[in-house]
Amino acid sequence: MATTFRCSVVTPSSVSLTQDATYVSFQAFDGQKGVMPGASPFLTRLGTGLFTLNGPSGNTTLVVDGGFAQMQGDALTLLADSAVPADSIDAKAASDELQKANASAVSGAGTTESARNAAERAQAVAHAKVAAARARGTRN
After folding, report:
1. Which domain holds residue 64?
2. 106 CB neighbour count, 10 Å cutoff
3. Which residue has the higher pLDDT, 121 or 56?
4. Collapsed DSSP state (helix, strand, coil) of residue 8
């Protein structure tokens, strides 16, 4: 059995990542998903959260938001709406973004459903960025 599989993260504007992995973890729409070599094929909708790849060349963390993940053969492909490398996230800016998203969600509590959904998504993205910045800070 293979000890690695190929993993790619693609956004509408770029290929964010293509490398071999021994384990990948990401947020699906219905909870956290972990993938190892030999995983059965699947297609799932992505949620908003941290994507972590462990591989022979080191670990990589991204904040992904929306899209789909497909495991086919020995390749995992994430087609994400957005993917931000954790090492490019400024902790202070992420914290400010989360405070702004929280305030927006509270002030817009009585507005339309689409406005509430947008506020909740902004909160989820900001929360994931804060978590990525904190995780990066504990490794430094």
Report:
1. 5-86
2. 9
3. 56
4. strand
